[in-house]
């Protein structure tokens, strides 16, 4: 076990080539495999989550260990249900406590043969794949969008296609729309027929070459660094992002504009990866209220950023945070106290800060809870005060080159063994 002490430079100038989008990579791999494609998508993410997907789809062993990759667990559960063969899908101890019963029940209603190896409603799963008829399904709209996406992506190979009705409020809709857009990119006939119903026709995917854009989620941490830097002339250049991206976390550019970060695209050519420059523009707003229902993975970044800037906030739409890699609501409250901030929550879906402070640790040692976004969101704290990140290797789940990129930007990373 290791820990990193992170020491920030006085001036912030960086030219960063971001990793490819994990969300797009993982969807592209499933769709590519269902299409019978002969050439892998280009510019795939090098993160752990994508690598376990590649290994699983390439070799399809009897037991597939997806480690901590929640996306892979959900997507492969649906995928293996329609591919002939019997496999056990398992993961880390934390993964074995992340619920998957809603997805399993939905697939069983389509005729899938899935059994729980251990505790009912949780991985590991024993899946015997076979052709499925498809048909109509109802699902609560408040469930993880990854359940919805997993079902949608197998829709074109179901004999009767799939009609999916989402009941109540639909969360993380941009991630569902990203899935639909990518399915169409591979020739699927899929559309919203009304505000709560998606219809997938039984029309097979087409094989095609596919290039994956870079990751707006990874960009969010560089926005955070520009916002927190004391350098008034801070400037970060990010390559490979798209204006008008379908990635839900591309909303980061609009939210950070309220916190004093300006986004400038080098060109405006539609659908082409571009270079983006981040600079300081003005003072942040004194208070920020935002509904993260469509981009919950940004919540940690903005909780940390707003508190350190003295911006009071109220963030809603966070109900999925408790079932992520860790209980992110609890983790944020605990770790922010180490920095001297008392964060409150309501109804397991709201986080707010009204300015309440507590005694901070002199050098805050941030625990990461096997959650990559805890390390990624707290490392920029070093721009304002000393910080140590425990178990920093967790970033490999989504952004393996993060620490190398920090070093290239002038940060000092001092590695120590953790007692």
Task: Give a written overview of the molecule.
With 419 residues, the chain is an alpha/beta fold. Helix content is 30%, strand content 24%. It is built from 12 helices and 20 strands. The protein has helices spanning 22-35, 48-59, 70-81, 101-109, 145-154, 173-185, 216-228, 252-257, 299-309, 328-338, 372-378, 402-408; strands at 2-7, 13-17, 63-65, 85-90, 113-116, 125-129, 135-140, 162-167, 190-194, 197-200, 235-241, 261-265, 274-280, 287-291, 312-316, 344-346, 350-353, 364-366, 387-390, 412-417. The strands form 5 sheets. The chain has a 4-stranded mixed beta sheet with strand order 18-19-1-20, covered by helices on one side. The chain has a 4-stranded mixed beta sheet with strand order 2-11-13-12. A 4-stranded mixed beta sheet has the order 3-4-6-5, with helices on one face. Helix 1 (22-35) crosses helix 6, helix 4 runs parallel beside helix 5 and helix 5 (145-154) packs parallel to helix 6.
